Amino acid sequence: MSVPLTLLGLLEREPSHGYDLKRDYDTFFGRGKPLPYGQVYATLGRLARDGKVVPGEAEPGDGPERKRYVITEAGVTEFEHWLAEPVAPEPTLQSVLFTKVVLALLLGRDAEAYLDTQRAAHLRRMRELTELRRTGPLVDALLADHGLFHLEADLRWIDLTTARLDALAAEVRA
């Protein structure tokens, strides 16, 4: 997730205070990992330094004075370019799962036990996401679907790799 570009997108919608940006980010994108206030303001500072946003005059409020940030044309251009670019397709050809299996085999450790443990962890997460999909709002349901599809692909890979462990062990030890 690109925090700077996400904040630019939120600012294109309307000029906002850092507090409001954090709230909106957490609401839509921070599922389980809220954005720290320090990161919001550090990112806004870098965006201002780079000419992507302009801080407004300090405004009095209930707490400390706050600035409303406005996206610049350079910020809009960067955001539009980012939005138009496709996300690099995943998965990569080298994954942590694969690395752990190969290292377990190279070191004479029980790769099948690792795969069984990983399968159990994936199934637990799938149950959590299935419940979220069933009971949550549409945004959560769509995010849960995305996660579930990735986990299903991982499980298929885990099953296929488990079935081929002997052949893989022979190849990596050769």
TrEMBL record:
Signal peptide: none
Domain Transcription regulator PadR N-terminal residue range list: 7-80
Organism: Kitasatospora putterlickiae
Domain of life: Bacteria
Pfam families per UniProt: PadR
Name of the protein in its database record: PadR family transcriptional regulator
